[in-house]
């Protein structure tokens, strides 16, 4: 159940990250239909009111998925699908919700961004060293002439 839902939720992020908002909405609507929710206001006896989203009579996994789908749907309506992102590091692939003020986030976490930037720096450095070594091998050597000095 989770694997299938994971693929479908990822499609929502892929659509949003690539500017295909209508497809993201269609996929979320399909997921909302598959995982219906029953929102309830709760305060847990403290009066600190908030909404719980449940899928009545379902397994815990179904409730979790219903909450995830509901949350993404609310996020899309509030901020748009352009704030759905897929990590820019090809080795990662995690998804994220862009909470930056100017919608400029590219990585799922600071740690992933640092790892990606360090790898890119090392690759550039290695390429520069390789290029210098290659140029040194191609450079013709010019024999130095012995200098003649006059004696006396």
What distinguishing features does this structure have?
two-stranded antiparallel sheet; 152 residues; 52% helix; Jann2411-like fold
Describe what you observe in this structure.
There is one protein chain. α1 runs antiparallel to α2 (21-34) and α2 packs antiparallel against α3 (60-79). The chain has four helices and four strands. The longest helix has 29 residues, at 110-138. The chain has helices spanning 2-17, 21-34, 60-79, 110-138, and strands spanning 38-42, 50-54, 84-86, 95-97. The protein has a domain at 2-86: Jann2411-like domain (Jann2411-like fold). The model has no long low-confidence stretch (mean pLDDT 87). The strands form two sheets. It has a two-stranded antiparallel ribbon with strand order 1-2. A two-stranded antiparallel ribbon has the order 3-4. The protein is mainly alpha-helical. A hairpin with an 8-residue loop joins β3 (84-86) and β4. Residues 83-125 form the Zinc finger CGNR domain. InterPro entries: ABATE (IPR010852), ABATE_dom_sf (IPR023286), Znf_CGNR (IPR021005).
- Work out the strand percent: 5-15%
Q: What is the total tally of β strands?
A: 4
Major beta-sheet overview = 2 strands, antiparallel
Give the overall shape.
elongated
CATH homologous superfamily of the domain at 2-86 - what is it?
Answer: Jann2411-like domain
How much is the radius of gyration in Å?
28 Å
What's the arrangement of strands in the largest beta sheet? 1-2
- Give the CA-CA distance, first to last residue: 99 Å
CATH architecture of the domain at 2-86: Orthogonal Bundle
CATH topology of the domain at 2-86: Jann2411-like fold
Mean pLDDT: 87
Number of helices: 4
Organism: Catellatospora coxensis
Protein name: Zinc finger CGNR domain-containing protein
InterPro entries: ABATE, ABATE_dom_sf, Znf_CGNR
């Amino acid at each position: 159940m989770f694997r299938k839902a994971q693929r479908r939720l990822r499609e929502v992020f892929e659509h949003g990250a690539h500017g295909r908002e209508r497809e993201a909405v269609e996929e979320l609507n399909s997921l909302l239909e598959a995982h219906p929710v029953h929102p309830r206001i709760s305060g847990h006896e403290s009066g600190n009111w908030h909404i719980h989203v449940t899928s009545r009579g379902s397994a815990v996994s179904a409730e979790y998925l219903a909450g995830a789908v509901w949350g993404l749907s609310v996020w899309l309506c509030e901020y748009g699908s352009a704030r759905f992102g897929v990590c820019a590091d090809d080795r990662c692939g995690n998804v994220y919700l862009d909470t930056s003020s100017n919608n400029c986030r590219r990585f799922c976490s600071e740690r992933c961004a640092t790892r990606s930037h360090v790898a890119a720096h090392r690759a550039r450095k290695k390429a520069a060293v390789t290029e210098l070594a290659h140029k040194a091998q191609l450079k013709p050597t010019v024999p130095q002439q012995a200098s003649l000095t006059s004696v006396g």
